[in-house]
Amino acid sequence: MDSTLRYFTLFLVAMTFALVTSCTRETEPAEGPDAPSEVSQPDEIPLIYHMSFISRYTQKLYFAGDAENWELADIYNHEIEEISEDIVARGEMHDGIDISQLMESMLLPQVERLEEAIDAGDRRMFLDRYNVMIQSCNNCHQSSDYGAVKVTVPESNSFNQDFSAN
Ligand code: HEC
Question: Of 78, 82, 140, which Cα lies nearest the Cα of 114?
């Protein structure tokens, strides 16, 4: 073996070694404080946080609809719909109770009925359907073994927000 060939062989061995170690490092599971946290995955956000947002948007929806601010009511109703659809999609089970299935059958139809009232710009229809939605929230809490959570139709605006249309 002449010296050029020997160097070339050494070079190849070194490159192969470098490649193998870098690949191994990449596939190693990340550990320590810099590792990506499971909690940051959208699917891993606990249901109760989503419920808090649903609750907040449901209250705001009421004030917007009551003030006949249909553009704003539409925004909140869509938010409720999107969060609900995410819960339906994630296959949430709580102690053998299919929360996702309940969400689909109990809340989404109410959201759609509210959308009709918002599109029609009909305050009376909106308020009636809003009441029915709140009952559905509580019915589902009962069915999910969370009957302790009782939501109500809001009475006064505690938000630092003006819900009027103009
Ligand atoms: C699929 C059935 C279901 C429906 C429909 C539902 N919820 Fe819930 N809700 C739950 C469950 C289950 C919990 C408890 C979650 C947990 O502890 O992990 C909960 C918790 C809550 C909480 C407690 C969180 C907090 O911030 O205090 C509130 C408030 C709430 N829901 C409001 C609502 C509102 C408002 C609606 C209707 C617009 C609604 N929920 C519809 C099942 C449902």
Answer: 78
